[in-house]
């Protein structure tokens, strides 16, 4: 018997039901012997009477305590309220914000004009927009005629 | 009884709505299961019963938070486990203190009990009491996980659900508790001779 087999069989049964093979392994393996003592210690100290029931009058005593205690909390009702009302309201608010932003952009022509004039008049900005940095050099070279032959 | 055949989830819904008869059925249905679990940790039936009362009070107060998609037993077991761990924390004993208080007689009886020998009723009771004292030195959550897995037969996944932790954490706790138990069992005076 291997140590693994020993552990499987040991945890599933009481010592009085252990097979001869299991007991032989126990005698020959100190590690499993220690494991077995630990498992028995747990079982012994953890009671566990299968037929145990609370004393008579348990339910009456509980009922008396429930009568004076707080009522069930309404956490679930609040969660339901969040699902039903707050989440859709947040979605509507987000949509309205997007619509307002779009409307604002559409109804500000002077800003669009500013952008157009910037592209037309500012060489650096235009070169950045077109992705052609040589445009800056071309513009600067075109202005004075320093390179022309005298 | 009108509610006796109803599912736990349906009864919880009614209890949350203020139906005391539905809650009574739940208590009748589950009180013994919770009581036997509590007895694993508390030897005196009065103490175990106190824990069970706390568990059902908590169950009643939180009945509105129960979601029927989750098995009711897991929900109840989680409340019960928390109640047991809280109380175990209050009663945790220091290992050295327990080991130094062991009498040679009780050590001998426990040693014989661990060896599978038959004992007289009084000796067996002393051995059980000492074993319980030794278990009280374990970390409460580690002990709880070990009891759930090794004695209650829960899988690591179920034990994780019952304790509100991950499977990996549960496995580590079980391993740590087993190792601590092995050490305790080794440090016991063998055959009553320290």
Give an overview in words:
The complex is a heterodimer of chains A (150) and B (194). By secondary structure, chain A is mostly helical. Chain A has two domains: 3-44, no CATH class; 80-142, no CATH class. In chain A, 71% of the residues lie in helices and 0% in strands. Chain A is built from eight helices and no strands. Chain A has helices at residues 3-11, 20-28, 30-45, 58-68, 75-106, 109-121, 123-130, 134-142. In chain A, α6 packs across α7 and α7 (123-130) packs antiparallel against α8 (134-142). Residues 142-150 of chain A have low confidence and may be disordered. Chain B has 194 residues and is an all-alpha fold. Chain B folds into two domains: 1-91, Orthogonal Bundle (Rna Polymerase Sigma Factor, Chain: A), CATH 1.10.1740; 93-194, no CATH class. In chain B, 73% of the residues lie in helices and 0% in strands. Chain B contains ten helices and no strands. Chain B has helices at residues 8-16, 20-41, 45-61, 72-91, 95-100, 104-114, 121-135, 140-151, 156-163, 167-187. In chain B, α1 (8-16) crosses α2 and α2 crosses α4. Chain B starts with 7 loop residues before the first helix and ends in a 7-residue tail after the last helix. The relative contact order of chain B is 0.10. The mean pLDDT of chain B is 88. The interface between A and B is large, with 39 and 53 residues.
